[in-house]
Write a structure and sequence with these properties.
CATH topology of chain B: MetI-like fold
Radius of gyration of chain A: 22 Å
Largest sheet of chain B: none
Helix content of chain B: over 70%
CATH topology of chain A: MetI-like fold
CATH class of chain B: Mainly Alpha
Number of domains of chain B: 1
CATH architecture of chain A: Orthogonal Bundle
Oligomer: heterodimer
Number of helices of chain B: 8
Radius of gyration of chain B: 22 Å
CATH superfamily of chain B: MetI-like
Number of helices of chain A: 10
CATH superfamily of chain A: MetI-like
Largest sheet of chain A: none
Number of strands of chain B: 0
Number of domains of chain A: 1
Helix content of chain A: over 70%
Largest interface: A-B, 36 and 37 residues
Strand content of chain A: under 5%
């Protein structure tokens, strides 16, 4: 941190260089947690959504059950089950998995990923179901195989339809990640809780962090609006 | 048979606390939603501005952060108010800010913002001709609202209210973090004491699933009543 900045900060009672760095650490943890869970969740959701649209109930049924369970229960419960439950699995403490899952970051990442994958699966499924039949028929008439059709026609068209709902899911995930602080992770909310308890200044600690979350939210909204405008260019009015 | 190590009755009591909290927050959210929607649709610029500011801010802040702000901050404010009143006016007034109250307040405020949008859309879906017809019959504004706007708005708002309710119910789990003895907190304490997380959290998860399933049925029934006489396409 530059000299003049830390000097300025040290005149402040609560926002000293130490607390600002604490918030910064929390911000990086939150961003890592949310970004990783969203990326892995999206990668999981695409094949799951395709499986969910298959007519055979033995294929689509398990996916339905997974999304039903993860969308029907609070994320906090899922986090608790994974966080407290992993240590209870017999024999895990002897394997290398224990070294990974002893750090609360990874159980939280797992819970968030499974949760967002469930929601995203349903979003993409809705978009897949809404594919105009004409597009599929046209692809078939061109002699495209199932995989080629999926890759060239159905998925790109579904992504365009899903993007609006998905941006809500991203914001939801950012906000939901605040509960990571419950399992001792020092994310943004965790940092605010530390600072609150050190200075007993609830307004300063929590309003500051609320503003950071708000800035992140608006950043996401802006980025998605740009992306939407790019992807849906063919639908925008000509004289614009 | 399921063995809850004697935590069974307490878990059940926690489930009742969760339900009470959810319904209290729903009532507050519906009230705020109606108010907010009226403000957004009113002719007053300042009312529209306040309502827009409220819904924007609420959607930018995580529920947990707001809950902590209200719970920890509310107590500090309350103490200051109490001191001020006592020293300057001699009034002995004090309210303990408990987690239940903060939970109802926060969840009510958050979902009030979502309900505002739901109600706004629903009010806009009532055809203007009907309102004009009501006015032409000589009904005053209140009568038009009670007899024409409200019943028809409800039809459009119910699906949205149903969705918000499902999310609200799951959000109540967060109140356990600020110390309310709802079923999540009791399950957490029990699972720590007994080293059996699955045994306590899975029943709680099932409880949430069944609460959503039951209320979904109730909303379906309400929906059928609100839509009586509407000729549907499907």
């Amino acid at each position: 941190m530059p000299e003049f900045l830390s000097e300025l900060l040290n005149q402040n009672e609560i926002f000293t260089a130490t607390t600002v760095m604490h918030y910064w650490g929390g911000l990086t943890t939150t961003v890592q947690l949310v970004f990783l869970s969203l990326v892995i969740g999206l990668l999981m959701a695409v094949p799951l959504a395709i499986l969910r649209t298959v007519r055979n109930p033995f294929v689509s049924g398990p996916v339905w059950l997974y999304t039903y369970l993860f969308r029907g229960t609070p994320l906090l419960i899922q986090l608790y089950i994974i966080y407290y439950g992993i240590g209870q699995i017999e024999g895990i403490q002897e394997t290398f998995w224990w070294d990974i899952f002893r750090d609360p970051f990874y159980p939280a990442l797992l819970a968030f990923t499974l949760n967002t994958a469930a929601y995203t699966t349903e979003i993409i499924r809705g978009a897949l179901m809404a594919t105009p039949p004409g597009e599929v028929e046209a692809a078939k008439a061109y002699g495209m195989s199932w995989a080629l059709r999926m890759r060239r026609i159905i998925l790109p068209s579904a992504f365009r339809r899903a993007i609006q709902a998905y941006s809500n899911e991203v914001i939801f995930m950012l906000h939901a990640s605040a509960i990571a602080s419950v399992v001792t992770i020092v994310d943004l909310t965790g940092a605010a809780r530390d600072i609150y308890s050190r200075f007993y200044a609830p307004f300063t600690a929590f309003i500051a962090v609320a503003l950071i979350y708000m800035a992140l939210t608006f950043l996401i909204v802006y980025a998605f609006r740009r992306l939407e405008r790019h992807l849906l260019k063919h639908q925008s009015p000509l004289n614009q | 048979m399921l063995d809850f190590h004697g935590y069974g009755p307490e878990l059940l009591r926690g489930a009742i606390v969760t339900t009470e909290l959810a319904f209290a927050a729903l009532a507050l959210a519906l009230a705020i939603g109606l108010l907010g929607a009226s403000a957004k649709l009113s002719g007053s610029r300042s009312a529209r501005g306040v309502a827009t500011f409220y819904t924007t801010v609420i959607r930018g802040i995580p529920d947990l952060v707001m809950m902590m702000l209200f719970y920890y901050g509310g107590q500090v404010l309350m103490n200051q108010l109490s001191d001020y009143l006592y020293y300057n006016h001699g009034i002995d007034f004090f309210v303990q800010f408990d987690p239940f109250m903060s939970g109802v307040l926060t969840i009510g405020l958050i979902f009030g913002a979502y309900m505002t949008e739901t109600f706004r859309g629903a009010f806009l879906a009532v055809p203007t001709g009907q309102i004009e017809a009501g006015r032409a019959y000589g009904m005053n504004r209140l009568q038009v609202f009670c007899r024409i706007m409200f019943p028809q708005m409800l039809r459009h708002a119910l699906p949205g209210i149903g969705n918000n309710w499902q999310v609200l119910l799951k959000t109540t789990a967060l109140v356990s973090v600020i110390g309310l003895s709802d079923m999540v907190r009791i399950a957490e304490q029990a699972s720590k004491a007994e080293h059996a997380p699955f045994k306590f959290f899975i029943p709680v998860a099932v409880m949430y699933l069944s609460l959503t399933a039951i209320t979904e049925l109730a909303i379906k029934c309400l929906n059928r009543r609100a839509n009586a006489g509407v000729v549907g396409g499907i």
